[in-house]
Amino acid sequence: MASKKTGFREDGVMTDLGGWTESDLDALLQDAQRLPAPGARIGFLSKQFLGVPYRTATLAGSAAENERLVVNISGVDCFTFLDYLEAMRRSASHAEFVENLKNVRYRNGVVDYLARNHFFSDWPEHQPEFISDVTAAVGGDSAVSIEKMLNVKADGSYWLAGIALRRRNVTFIPSERFDTKMLAKLQTGDYIGIYTDLAGLDVAHVGVIVKGPFMFYLRHASSAPGKMRVLDDELAHYLADKPGACVYRAK
Q1: Is 249 helix (H, G, I), strand (E, B) or coil?
Q2: Which one, of 156, 157, 170, lies nearest residue 119 by Cα?
């Protein structure tokens, strides 16, 4: 097991570690744990994913199919990228990472499609001991809160079959209100969700904030044509034509 990269573990976990081995991850996570701040760990760990391909449909499970825990770091979408980062920053070994992934991706660590955190705002809602919604603190008077009924489209149909509706207040900062004062409140390792006006959804995309010497970057698994990998985009430029953003911070 120490060098296994791809396949099924004895406990049924579907695993694809790409270019890493379990021993590689043990060493990487031990290095990350030497960084005391959660945000610094996330920034360090996210850098290791740069260039990893963007892929869809990497999870296994639906309302009609039994859920399986998937550990696939050979290809990620924007949400699974954050799943892996958050589980890794809590872990000092590959074995801990797999266990923590259950608690990041699922409510109460129960590997079940119905218990999966399908929405970005599920994180602070169900894991307040690990994740804080700091959008209002960053945005101040410019932050906006709107009540949404998650999972139901404007026409009354569901985004996700079998998943209950969730009434939730979503706080975001309109993109046109972002200024240097707000940017100064951001930290490397902050999780950012790109707010959407679409009924039934809180965000349309997620990523990680990386603070450079002269500007802020959005590190994310991009599905844009010609990109299709984990990369850095200049944050202000990326937000320019988006409705706004939500900001969460690891505790």
Answers
A1: strand
A2: 170
